[in-house]
Amino acid sequence: PRFSKMLLHGYGSKDKWGVWGRYQIKKDVVRVWASQDWHDVCFQLKVIPSNKVLHYDTSEKGVCTTLELEQHMSSASGNFEDDSYDLHKYEIPDLRYFRFLRDRRL
């Protein structure tokens, strides 16, 4: 219900915990940016062919059902370039994967 209300009211929705953002997909890399009034966050994820790398999910509906978190960055100015003065890169533990499943409602 919260997600539906955010979509209904658009960018200016007043959800206390929901944050609007944007994403960019290039081949097998997904970058996600989210902004709040005081801070910006960026995640870089890589789409992994599950059955070739992780040896599971041999479904015929698709083999790319896993995301690997590659980078997690934050910046108060929203500048995520390497020469930014306020860029902070967080350490990410190795082998952290996210499985995603299709949802017919979307």
Q: The biggest beta sheet, please?
A: 6 strands, antiparallel
**Overall SS class:** mainly beta
Helix content: 10-25%
The radius of gyration is: 16 Å
Order of helices and strands: HEEEHEEE
Q: Determine the strand fraction and express it as a percent band.
A: 25-35%
Note poorly predicted spans. Answer: none
Strands, count: 6
Give the termini separation.
14 Å
Average pLDDT for all residues: 77
Query: Count the helices. How many?
Result: 2
CA-based shape: flat
Structural summary, described in words:
The structure is a single chain. The chain has 106 residues and is mainly beta. 11% of the residues lie in helices and 35% in strands. It contains two helices and six strands; from the N terminus they run αβββαβββ. It has helices spanning 2-9, 50-53; strands spanning 21-26, 29-35, 40-48, 66-75, 88-89, 97-99. The radius of gyration is 16 Å and the shape is flat. The model has no long low-confidence stretch (mean pLDDT 77).
